[in-house]
Write a structure and sequence with these properties.
- The protein is 24% helix and 30% strand.
- The chain is α+β, with helices and mostly antiparallel strands and 220 residues long.
- α1 runs antiparallel to α2 and α2 runs parallel beside α4.
- The relative contact order is 0.13.
- The model has no long low-confidence stretch (mean pLDDT 86).
C-alpha cells in the first residue's frame, strides 16, 4: 500500500511540464523503491530492543540524471522523505532522528545508474519541529529533539495523575515535520481524536487521550 502510494505521488510529480524530461532514463519512482528496500534491509534494534531504521539516505546520481532531477529537487526530496516515514510507520520502525534524503552528483556513474547509502544519524534530531502538549489545566509541555515520555511515573516528561493510565504509557517521537505517538502496550491504550491508536503521526490540534485525561497536540 505504501509503495503504491509512493509510485502514484511520484508519477504525478513528473506530469505536465516535467513529463518530457522524464520520458526516458532514470525515473524518480526507481529511487523511491530503492529507498524502501534500503530501509527494510538495514533495520536494526536499539538498546531497548525496539526496531529502528536508518534515517539518512544519500542518493548518488550520474551527472545527467542529477541535472534532470534538479528541476524537481525539493518536491522530490519531500515525497521520498514522506514515503520513508510512512513505510516505517507501517512496519513499526522508529528513527533516531529526522528523516533526511540527499541527492548528490557522482561523475563516475553512467546515465541511469544510481547508488543509495543509508545510515543511522542522531544529529538530525536537532531539527525537530516546534510543538507542545496542552494539558487539561492549560499548562504547556514543550516538545523538543528527544523522545517525550508519558505515564504515571513522576520522572515522565508528561505525568498522568490517573490510576487508569500505565506507569510507562506512551511516547512521542520526533518524526520528520511532526511527532509519532507510540503506545507502550498500556493497559487501557491511547486514543487520538477518540480512536484507539498504537502508532500514528500527529497533526496540529489532535486530541490525545490516556486513561481519562485528554491532551491537545499543537505545532507552531
Amino acid at each position: 500500500m505504501v509503495l503504491r502510494s509512493l509510485e502514484q505521488r511520484l508519477e504525478r510529480l513528473v506530469e505536465g511540464m516535467f513529463a518530457r524530461a522524464f520520458r526516458t532514463g532514470l525515473q524518480p519512482v526507481e529511487v523511491g523503491r530503492r529507498l524502501i528496500r534500503e530501509l527494510d534491509t538495514n533495520r536494526s534494534l536499539d538498546v531497548s530492543g525496539r526496531s529502528i531504521g536508518p534515517n539518512r539516505f544519500t542518493v548518488k546520481l550520474a551527472s545527467e540524471d542529477f541535472t534532470k532531477f534538479s528541476a524537481i529537487r525539493e518536491s522530490l526530496i519531500g515525497e521520498l522523505s514522506t514515503s520513508v516515514r510512512e513505510h516505517a510507520q507501517s512496519e513499526r520502525l522508529l528513527f533516531l532522528g529526522r528523516v533526511v534524503v540527499e541527492l548528490v552528483e557522482d561523475a563516475q556513474l553512467t546515465v541511469g545508474m544510481f547508488r543509495v547509502h543509508s545510515s543511522f544519524d542522531e544529529t538530525t534530531a536537532a531539527a525537530a519541529p516546534p510543538a507542545y502538549l496542552e494539558l487539561p489545566e492549560g499548562q504547556r509541555v514543550e516538545l523538543g529533539t528527544r523522545i517525550a515520555t508519558i505515564g504515571r511515573l513522576p520522572e515522565s516528561d508528561v505525568v498522568l495523575a490517573d490510576p487508569n493510565a500505565s506507569r510507562h504509557h506512551a511516547e512521542l517521537h520526533p518524526d520528520g515535520d511532526t511527532y509519532l505517538l507510540v503506545d507502550l502496550g498500556s493497559t487501557n491504550g491511547s486514543k487520538i481524536n477518540g480512536e484507539r491508536a498504537n502508532r500514528r503521526l500527529l497533526a496540529d490540534g489532535d486530541e490525545l487521550t490516556f486513561g481519562i485525561l485528554t491532551l491537545v497536540f499543537h505545532q507552531l
